[in-house]
Write a structure and sequence with these properties.
Layout lengths: L6 H12 L17 H5 L5 E3 L4 H14 L3 E7 L2 E7 L5 H5 L11 H4 L3 H20 L8 E6 L4 E6 L14
Parallel strand pairs: 1-2
Antiparallel strand pairs: 2-3, 3-4, 4-5
Length: 171
């Protein structure tokens, strides 16, 4: 029924059906280093759930340059992670520069459980709401890791990398 239709248009229609008070402005172009800043400018929070490191890093670098917080969520096989990044540390501080290429592993190649994406996505949604509304403690710089085999969460603090090419002091 939806085959051949753009994901952005389908998502916009879905949101409009849920709440007609929400303004939706779908974008149907691939995001990358050349257009990320233009696509993300003017937002209060960017939520990234892309399935490859090159896109995640392009989004992170644009968020750093724009001063926009980034909420990153990822899931692969039985593992999930959710992190909120502001200025320093940024997502690149966490993963480094080795993942800028499109040839890194992604969830479409490695597989992911639907229940895992639901768990990670719901956690990310709650963190986004808390961030925008301003409730709870600021989670910037914390990475929340979910282990789908043990059904457990743990959090780690990501240190800022002073040599990070996106947010480091040497930039």
């Amino acid at each position: 029924m939806d085959a051949g239709k753009l994901k952005s248009e389908l998502a916009a229609a879905f949101v409009r059906r849920l709440n007609h008070f929400v303004e939706v402005n779908p974008k149907s172009e691939r995001i990358g280093p050349e257009n990320a800043a233009m696509l993300l400018a003017g937002h209060d929070l960017v939520i990234d759930g892309s399935d490859n490191f090159a896109t995640r890093l392009a989004v992170s670098d644009a968020c750093v340059s724009l001063g926009v917080p980034l909420l990153s969520a990822a899931a692969v096989q039985f593992q999930g992670q959710v992190g909120l990044f502001r200025a320093q540390p940024c997502y690149r501080c966490f993963v480094g520069d080795a993942f800028d290429a499109d040839d890194c592993d992604n969830c479409s190649e490695l597989g992911v459980l639907g229940a895992l994406t639901a768990t990670v996505g719901s956690f990310a949604a709650l963190l986004a709401i808390e961030t925008v509304v301003g409730v709870g403690s600021d989670q910037a710089g914390h990475l929340h890791l979910f282990d789908g085999e043990t059904l457990s969460w743990r959090s780690i603090r990501i240190p800022a990398d002073p040599n990070c090419r996106a947010c480091g002091s040497d930039v």
